């Protein structure tokens, strides 16, 4: 009887000790348990597009999704809704054929909705937008700390009749609510 009680105490102590070692890891990195973005909706410009997970090229540049009708989320970066800057990117041609073609039409206060793989969604509000040359970007793009933000980066791809304009447009938005 004593051996059974001691054996039970050892098992219980091991279970409690193991849980104590694992629990801090969960609380230190809650973003590892957040759902991935799967869809972007921007009612003001009629955008509703799927989001693919992308990485970086061998040269360190952000990959673009294989399908020009999709957006890319940098999977090694911040997840939407977590502290820092979640980055979604895609192409822009300005002919209305792909999702980010009207990105420059966004204004401060416009709503951006990010659908997540767990069926929930997050709402962001446009804080600002601006053109950037190919060799520059906002200083805090890809930031891993601070308030939750979302950056939409549109790289200008081949356009009809060689239309001129900035190399990129970046829209920055702040988290409004979870839904």
Coarse morphology: globular
Broad structural category? alpha+beta
The overall number of domains is 2
> Separation of termini?
54 Å
Q: What is the spatial order of strands in the main beta sheet?
A: 1-2-3-4-7-8-6-5
- CATH-level-4 superfamily name of the largest domain: Sortase
**Low-confidence parts:** 5-33
Strand content: 35-45%
Total number of helices: 1
Write up this protein.
The protein has 179 residues and is an alpha+beta fold. The chain contains one helix and eight strands, in the order αββββββββ. Helices cover 15% and strands 36% of the residues. Residues 5-33 have low confidence and may be disordered.
What descriptors fit this protein?
eight-stranded mixed β-barrel; 179 residues; Sortase, Chain: A; alpha+beta; 36% strand
Summarize the structure.
By secondary structure, this protein is α+β, with helices and mostly antiparallel strands.
List the SSEs and their pairings:
Elements: H1 2-28, E1 37-42, E2 47-54, E3 71-74, E4 84-92, E5 111-116, E6 121-132, E7 148-156, E8 168-178
Parallel strand pairs: 2-3, 4-7
Antiparallel strand pairs: 1-2, 1-5, 3-4, 5-6, 6-8, 7-8
């Amino acid at each position: 009887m004593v051996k059974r009680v001691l054996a039970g105490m050892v098992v219980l102590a091991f279970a409690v000790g193991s849980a104590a070692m694992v629990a801090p890891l969960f609380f230190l990195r809650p973003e590892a348990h957040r759902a991935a973005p799967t869809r972007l909706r921007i009612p003001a410009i009629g955008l509703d597009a799927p989001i693919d997970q992308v990485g970086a090229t061998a040269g360190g540049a952000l990959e673009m999704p294989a399908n020009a009708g999709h957006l890319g989320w940098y999977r090694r970066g911040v997840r939407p809704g977590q502290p820092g800057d979640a980055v979604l990117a895609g192409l822009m041609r300005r002919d209305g054929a792909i999702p980010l073609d009207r990105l420059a039409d966004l204004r401060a206060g416009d709503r951006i909705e990010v659908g997540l793989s767990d069926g929930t969604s997050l709402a962001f509000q446009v804080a600002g937008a601006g053109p950037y040359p190919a060799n520059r970007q906002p200083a805090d793009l890809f930031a891993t700390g601070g308030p939750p933000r979302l950056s939409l980066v549109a790289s200008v791809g081949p356009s009809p009749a060689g239309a001129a304009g900035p190399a990129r447009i970046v829209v920055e938005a702040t988290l409004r609510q979870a839904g």
